[in-house]
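Troubleshooting: if your tokenizer reports a length mismatch, compare your output against this known-good record of 324 residues.
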Amino acid sequence: MDSKISSPDRQTNFAEAEADTLFTHYSQSASGTLSQTQTDTLVNGGVSLALANAQGTFNGDANYSSLFADSFGISSGGTTQVKSNSQTTVAATFSLAANQTFSFDFSGELALLVKEIEHSKRASNEAKSKTAFVVLDTTNANKPQVLDYFGISGELSSPKDINRFTISASDHVKIQNKNRPDIHGYHDIESFASNVSGTYRRTFDHSTNITLVEINDTSIALSGDPLIGTQNTRDSLTSGGNYGNFVVTKDDFKAGKYDIRNFEVGKDEVDFQGWGNIDASAWFQGHQPVDTDKGALLTVSPGKSLLFEGVHANQLNASDFHFQ
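Known-good structure output:
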């Protein structure tokens, strides 16, 4: 993978998922026999239709059903944020003569990460991903047929304490390295990563056009928030004083989410009164805001947050806050 999952700010709810497959050492050069129209048709439904038709071919193969039949859609109660990404790409096409052997090496990777939630019935973090490839017979490009497949899928969830990992492959796929993931915990973060590698090899008894297709599917779901998701209080702060200060008085700062409207970055300031002599730079490093669909959300303390409407998180810095 080009990017690695990093540890996000622990002040907010999060889940992340990545998936990828790499192909190397093809036994022959790609031929590029499919037109762009045929390629687009495969990506936009042809593969799905071929997989559905292949259920009969792989009848009774639980691995096939687990990999391709299950939906990664997530539906949770409460306020839910769902982000999914499904990508199907044609890796290469090949023209094979009768009795020719076709082979390649591959490596599939998954990485999942969630914030751990304890003792909550209203909040959950879920991350799911799968990466797979299918070898299609595209001699008739309008009627692709699944010949072989490989895939790995994973799921990580808190507080449900779910961690699943599945490897699926047809007969012509040989797994050489099964690096099953170990669950790692660091403070309130759970994660696992896995790499599975192997070789595909098959001899075709008649002239065949082969298309190798990669499928990556990731999904995350955040239901509620372990810190502020159960709070119903919603107030707003308006600018007061001559300098555009938004005053937050400690004794009056109750649990809830407070809107800060019309905040002008570089001009306005949040004035925390009654908090004592706190270094704003050090404080801000430990209270990084995060982006939401309405603006930058800053968690001041558990259950107490400020929403800067229309402002991006990267626009805020320590100079926007003052303590006294």
